[in-house]
Write a structure and sequence with these properties.
Helices cover 37% and strands 21% of the residues. With 208 residues, the chain is an alpha/beta fold.
Length: 208
Protein backbone atom coordinates (compact mmCIF):
# COMPACT_ATOMS: atom_id res chain seq x y z
CA UNK A 1 0.00 0.00 0.00
CA UNK A 2 1.39 3.36 -1.08
CA UNK A 3 -0.18 6.64 0.02
CA UNK A 4 -0.37 9.53 -2.42
CA UNK A 5 0.73 12.00 0.27
CA UNK A 6 0.22 12.88 3.94
CA UNK A 7 -3.16 14.45 3.16
CA UNK A 8 -4.61 11.26 1.69
CA UNK A 9 -3.21 9.25 4.60
CA UNK A 10 -4.68 11.71 7.11
CA UNK A 11 -8.18 11.45 5.63
CA UNK A 12 -8.02 7.67 5.90
CA UNK A 13 -6.91 7.94 9.53
CA UNK A 14 -9.64 10.48 10.33
CA UNK A 15 -12.29 8.11 8.98
CA UNK A 16 -11.05 5.31 11.24
CA UNK A 17 -10.84 7.64 14.25
CA UNK A 18 -14.32 9.13 13.83
CA UNK A 19 -15.62 6.80 16.59
CA UNK A 20 -13.91 9.10 19.11
CA UNK A 21 -15.66 12.23 17.85
CA UNK A 22 -18.10 12.50 20.75
CA UNK A 23 -15.44 12.04 23.43
CA UNK A 24 -13.49 14.88 25.05
CA UNK A 25 -10.20 14.63 23.24
CA UNK A 26 -7.10 16.27 21.88
CA UNK A 27 -4.89 15.51 18.90
CA UNK A 28 -1.17 15.47 19.63
CA UNK A 29 1.00 16.04 16.55
CA UNK A 30 4.52 14.63 16.31
CA UNK A 31 6.59 17.38 14.65
CA UNK A 32 7.19 18.02 11.99
CA UNK A 33 5.93 15.30 9.63
CA UNK A 34 2.92 14.42 11.75
CA UNK A 35 1.50 17.94 11.81
CA UNK A 36 -0.29 17.93 8.40
CA UNK A 37 -2.00 14.65 9.31
CA UNK A 38 -2.87 15.80 12.82
CA UNK A 39 -4.42 18.99 11.47
CA UNK A 40 -6.81 17.05 9.23
CA UNK A 41 -7.71 14.56 11.97
CA UNK A 42 -8.33 17.38 14.45
CA UNK A 43 -10.48 19.26 11.94
CA UNK A 44 -12.58 16.20 11.13
CA UNK A 45 -13.11 15.23 14.78
CA UNK A 46 -13.46 18.83 15.98
CA UNK A 47 -10.63 18.31 18.48
CA UNK A 48 -7.98 20.84 19.49
CA UNK A 49 -4.48 20.11 18.21
CA UNK A 50 -1.22 20.47 20.07
CA UNK A 51 2.39 19.82 19.20
CA UNK A 52 4.13 17.09 21.19
CA UNK A 53 7.09 18.92 22.68
CA UNK A 54 9.07 15.79 23.42
CA UNK A 55 12.27 14.44 21.95
CA UNK A 56 13.97 11.11 22.34
CA UNK A 57 17.01 10.55 24.50
CA UNK A 58 19.34 8.36 22.47
CA UNK A 59 21.66 5.63 23.65
CA UNK A 60 25.28 6.80 24.03
CA UNK A 61 26.53 4.28 21.44
CA UNK A 62 23.60 4.79 19.05
CA UNK A 63 21.78 8.12 19.18
CA UNK A 64 18.99 6.81 16.93
CA UNK A 65 18.06 4.17 19.50
CA UNK A 66 15.73 5.83 22.00
CA UNK A 67 16.20 4.90 25.64
CA UNK A 68 13.74 7.54 26.75
CA UNK A 69 12.15 10.87 26.00
CA UNK A 70 12.10 14.31 27.55
CA UNK A 71 9.74 17.25 27.65
CA UNK A 72 10.52 20.73 28.94
CA UNK A 73 9.37 19.76 32.42
CA UNK A 74 9.66 15.98 32.70
CA UNK A 75 11.43 12.95 31.30
CA UNK A 76 11.26 9.16 31.15
CA UNK A 77 14.22 6.81 30.70
CA UNK A 78 14.28 3.03 30.56
CA UNK A 79 17.00 1.77 32.91
CA UNK A 80 20.19 0.71 31.10
CA UNK A 81 23.08 -0.36 33.33
CA UNK A 82 25.62 0.94 30.80
CA UNK A 83 24.05 4.43 30.70
CA UNK A 84 25.33 6.76 33.41
CA UNK A 85 23.39 9.40 35.29
CA UNK A 86 25.87 11.99 34.03
CA UNK A 87 25.08 11.06 30.42
CA UNK A 88 21.35 11.39 31.00
CA UNK A 89 21.77 14.81 32.61
CA UNK A 90 23.92 15.98 29.70
CA UNK A 91 21.41 14.73 27.13
CA UNK A 92 18.52 16.32 29.01
CA UNK A 93 20.19 19.72 28.70
CA UNK A 94 20.76 19.28 24.95
CA UNK A 95 17.29 17.92 24.27
CA UNK A 96 15.56 20.61 26.30
CA UNK A 97 17.53 23.35 24.56
CA UNK A 98 16.19 22.07 21.22
CA UNK A 99 12.67 21.73 22.62
CA UNK A 100 12.78 25.26 24.02
CA UNK A 101 13.76 26.59 20.61
CA UNK A 102 10.79 24.79 19.08
CA UNK A 103 8.45 25.95 21.84
CA UNK A 104 9.59 29.55 21.40
CA UNK A 105 8.94 29.30 17.67
CA UNK A 106 5.41 27.95 18.09
CA UNK A 107 4.56 29.77 21.34
CA UNK A 108 1.10 31.32 21.44
CA UNK A 109 -0.03 29.52 18.31
CA UNK A 110 -2.54 27.39 20.19
CA UNK A 111 -4.13 27.05 23.62
CA UNK A 112 -2.69 24.30 25.78
CA UNK A 113 -5.26 21.66 26.72
CA UNK A 114 -5.15 19.73 29.99
CA UNK A 115 -4.82 16.06 29.02
CA UNK A 116 -6.38 14.71 32.22
CA UNK A 117 -9.39 12.47 31.45
CA UNK A 118 -9.06 13.25 27.73
CA UNK A 119 -8.80 10.84 24.81
CA UNK A 120 -5.33 11.61 23.47
CA UNK A 121 -4.74 10.83 19.79
CA UNK A 122 -1.03 10.77 18.92
CA UNK A 123 -0.57 11.29 15.18
CA UNK A 124 2.56 10.81 13.09
CA UNK A 125 3.26 10.04 9.44
CA UNK A 126 4.73 6.63 10.30
CA UNK A 127 6.72 4.55 12.78
CA UNK A 128 10.00 2.84 12.01
CA UNK A 129 11.25 1.46 15.35
CA UNK A 130 8.58 2.84 17.69
CA UNK A 131 11.18 3.65 20.35
CA UNK A 132 10.53 7.39 20.43
CA UNK A 133 6.75 7.06 20.62
CA UNK A 134 7.04 4.37 23.29
CA UNK A 135 8.95 6.77 25.51
CA UNK A 136 6.57 9.61 24.65
CA UNK A 137 3.60 7.48 25.71
CA UNK A 138 5.24 6.79 29.07
CA UNK A 139 5.71 10.54 29.47
CA UNK A 140 2.12 11.41 28.50
CA UNK A 141 0.73 8.90 30.98
CA UNK A 142 1.95 11.20 33.74
CA UNK A 143 -0.80 13.63 32.63
CA UNK A 144 -3.48 11.01 33.44
CA UNK A 145 -5.38 10.90 30.13
CA UNK A 146 -8.49 8.71 29.88
CA UNK A 147 -7.10 6.95 26.79
CA UNK A 148 -4.01 7.07 24.64
CA UNK A 149 -4.38 6.18 20.98
CA UNK A 150 -1.55 6.09 18.46
CA UNK A 151 -2.64 6.47 14.84
CA UNK A 152 -0.22 6.27 11.91
CA UNK A 153 -0.59 5.35 8.24
CA UNK A 154 2.33 2.90 8.20
CA UNK A 155 4.52 1.13 10.74
CA UNK A 156 7.04 -1.67 10.90
CA UNK A 157 6.14 -5.01 12.47
CA UNK A 158 8.77 -4.25 15.11
CA UNK A 159 7.10 -0.97 16.08
CA UNK A 160 3.64 -2.53 16.21
CA UNK A 161 4.83 -5.36 18.47
CA UNK A 162 6.53 -2.81 20.73
CA UNK A 163 3.51 -0.53 21.16
CA UNK A 164 0.36 -2.62 20.73
CA UNK A 165 0.11 -3.44 24.42
CA UNK A 166 1.28 -0.03 25.64
CA UNK A 167 -1.69 2.06 24.47
CA UNK A 168 -5.47 1.77 24.47
CA UNK A 169 -5.51 1.50 20.69
CA UNK A 170 -2.83 1.31 18.03
CA UNK A 171 -4.27 2.17 14.63
CA UNK A 172 -2.00 1.40 11.68
CA UNK A 173 -3.38 1.43 8.15
CA UNK A 174 -0.53 -0.58 6.63
CA UNK A 175 1.95 -2.98 8.25
CA UNK A 176 4.26 -4.15 5.47
CA UNK A 177 6.23 -7.39 5.75
CA UNK A 178 9.36 -5.48 4.79
CA UNK A 179 9.94 -1.97 6.09
CA UNK A 180 12.67 0.24 4.65
CA UNK A 181 11.62 3.75 5.67
CA UNK A 182 8.45 5.74 6.31
CA UNK A 183 8.95 7.83 3.17
CA UNK A 184 9.07 4.78 0.90
CA UNK A 185 5.33 4.29 1.46
CA UNK A 186 4.41 7.73 0.11
CA UNK A 187 4.46 8.91 -3.51
CA UNK A 188 4.98 12.45 -2.21
CA UNK A 189 6.93 12.77 1.03
CA UNK A 190 8.08 16.36 0.89
CA UNK A 191 9.83 17.86 3.87
CA UNK A 192 7.56 19.65 6.35
CA UNK A 193 9.17 22.95 7.33
CA UNK A 194 8.72 24.99 10.50
CA UNK A 195 6.83 27.53 8.40
CA UNK A 196 4.47 24.75 7.31
CA UNK A 197 3.89 23.85 10.96
CA UNK A 198 3.19 27.50 11.81
CA UNK A 199 0.69 27.68 8.96
CA UNK A 200 -1.23 24.65 10.24
CA UNK A 201 -1.24 26.02 13.78
CA UNK A 202 -2.56 29.37 12.58
CA UNK A 203 -5.37 27.66 10.66
CA UNK A 204 -6.22 25.53 13.68
CA UNK A 205 -6.25 28.54 16.00
CA UNK A 206 -8.63 30.36 13.68
CA UNK A 207 -10.98 27.39 13.58
CA UNK A 208 -11.33 26.59 17.28
Amino acid sequence: MIFKDRIEAAKLLANKLSKYKDEPGVVMAVPKGGVPLAYIVAKELDFPMQIIFTKKIGHPTNKEYAIGAASLTDYFVEPHHEVSREYIEQELKLVRAKLQGMADKFSGKYDTVDLKEKTVLIIDDGMATGNTLLSTVQLLRKSYPAKIVIAVPVASIEAVDKLKNKVDELLVLHIPPYFESVGSFYENFDNVSEDDVLSYLEKMKGRI
